[in-house]
Design brief:
The complex is a heterodimer of chains A (106) and B (345). Chain A has 106 residues and is α+β, with helices and mostly antiparallel strands. A 5-stranded mixed β-sheet of chain A has the order 2-1-5-3-4. In chain A, strand 1 and strand 2 form a beta hairpin. Chain A is globular, with a radius of gyration of 12 Å. Chain B is α/β, with parallel strands linked by helices and 345 residues long. Chain B has 2 domains: 211 residues, FAD/NAD(P)-binding domain (3-Layer(bba) Sandwich), CATH 3.50.50.60; 122 residues, FAD/NAD(P)-binding domain (3-Layer(bba) Sandwich). Helices cover 22% and strands 28% of the residues of chain B. Classes of the chains: A alpha+beta (106), B alpha/beta (345). At the A-B interface, loops of A face loops of B.
């Protein structure tokens, strides 16, 4: 199991355990993490699972594919660490990952 | 108000479930008009994931969203439904009785339908433009901030800021160039997911200094009485500056909102419409809710569940529309009358 921490826009932190092979978005939904809508269900088609990856983790994640970059155009307040959580696959390498959820998903 | 359309059934939503409702109603001789806010059929399948494979449609080990929609359109062809696209239903009023229901359906554009039954197959609600979370944006909406272009002329002589990097943003930047006094396109990065020829055309205009392209994101708005004067922009380097403009067009794609459905007198539970599991009828007799928009104990938001729901709703609809006719259950494989309707006998 891999540990992932979600920090919401009010600063409240929630840590969850997730199976390798699933995605950060799925981990959020399974654990009822607020602030992740995932309207399209993980098809990289809606930009409502937008998260800010913690600075310390940005470089450790595989880079976003062009499809994800394109879809991030639909998200709001995109910053350096912006990612779509449905495109972050959970592996043992990202154990301890910290992401923040935006104030709203659009 | 134009001519009133009289019909047996109005289906709200042209997603997979709304389309299959045409089929199930058609087999029972019920004619349908289908209304959708999008300019095309298919709902989420066509709008959100046309290229994505779906693996849980019975009989199709794999089929894309658009593939399923195309097949459904072909399947319902014999019933010649009338589609009304770009139409948001704004009101639904009962004008009959519980025993003999009748409804008047009015769209935002003022089209009127008089129908005996209504099937709400609205999925996650209606697709509406995403609104950027900019503080105070409401005050400028429809005077200076627009999420769609209805008439290009309204932008004549105005300095227009277009925000986004997709086809809508690029298309309107190109179309309004020459109409607006000045078009500025703003996007968060110097890459676009729009058609390459539009991007090239935009870059050419920028080179010729006929259009501006700014890298950045809008974080605030300035202006008096709903009239925009400046957008506050956070540039690529993190600096903040004001950009003078009279109108802003943000194009950030679509999101689903329940919309006017909430005002029709239907019981709602967490933005879903509760129905029974025998007829998938709502608290208002004659109004059915099918597919992702409904809820009942054990509900699964699957396309296949929606298909089942419309078959049962159609049986009940038949009793309202043909109260004196006895409905005999028939199979398409063996019934010559059904095959005749399908145009295959």
């Amino acid at each position: 199991m891999v540990q992932i921490t979600f920090i919401d826009s009010t600063g409240q932190s929630r840590s969850v355990s997730a199976d390798e092979g699933s995605t950060v978005m799925e981990a959020a939904l399974r654990n009822s993490i607020p602030g992740i809508e995932a309207e399209c269900g993980g098809a990289c088609a809606c930009a409502t699972c937008h998260v800010y990856v913690d600075d310390a983790w940005v470089a450790k994640l595989p880079k976003a594919q062009p499809m994800e970059e394109d879809m991030l155009d639909f998200a709001f307040d995109v910053r350096t660490g912006s990612r779509l959580s449905c495109q972050i696959r959970i592996t043992s390498e990202i154990d301890g990952l910290v992401v923040s959820t935006p104030e709203r998903q659009g | 108000m134009g001519e009133i359309v009289k019909t047996d059934a109005v289906i709200i939503g042209a997603g997979p479930v709304g389309l299959f409702a045409v089929f199930e109603l058609g087999l029972l001789d019920i004619k349908a008009h289908v209304l959708d806010i999008l300019p095309k059929a298919g709902g989420q399948c066509a709008e959100l994931y046309p290229e994505k494979p779906i693996y849980d449609i019975p009989g199709f080990p794999t089929i894309t969203g658009q593939g399923l929609v195309d097949n459904l359109m072909k399947q319902i062809e014999p019933f010649a439904p009338t589609f009304h696209y770009n139409q948001m239903v704004s009101s639904l009023e009962p004008v009959g009785s519980p025993e003999a229901p009748a409804f008047r359906v009015i769209t935002e554009d003022g089209d009127v339908f008089d129908t005996k039954v209504v099937l709400i197959a609205a999925g996650g609600g209606s697709f509406q433009p995403k609104k950027p979370p900019i503080a105070g944006i409401d005050a400028y909406e429809n005077t200076s901030v627009f999420y769609a272009v209805r008439k290009m002329e309204q932008f004549r002589g105005r300095r227009v800021l277009i925000v986004g990097g997709g086809d809508s943003a690029l298309d309107w930047a190109l179309n309004l160039q020459g109409v607006a006094e000045r078009v500025t396109l703003m996007h968060r990065r110097d890459a676009f997911r729009a058609a390459p020829h539009s991007v090239n055309a935009m870059r050419e205009l920028v080179r010729e200094k006929k259009m501006d392209f700014v890298l950045g994101q809008v974080t605030g708005l300035k202006g008096e009485g709903g009239m925009l004067s400046h957008a506050i922009v956070r540039g690529e380097d993190g600096s903040t500056f004001d950009l003078a403009c009279d109108a802003m067009l943000p194009f950030f794609g679509l999101t689903m909102k329940l919309g006017p459905i909430a005002q029709w007198g239907l019981n709602l539970h967490e933005n879903l419409i509760p129905v029974d599991t025998e007829k998938f009828e709502t608290n208002m007799p004659g109004i059915f809710a099918v597919g992702d928009i409904n809820t009942y104990p054990g509900k699964l938001k699957l396309i296949l569940s929606g298909f089942h729901e419309v078959a049962l709703a159609a049986q009940r609809a038949h009793r309202y529309i043909y109260p004196d006719k006895k409905l005999t259950f028939q199979y398409t494989t063996s019934s010559s009358s059904l095959q005749k309707k399908l145009g295959v006998s």
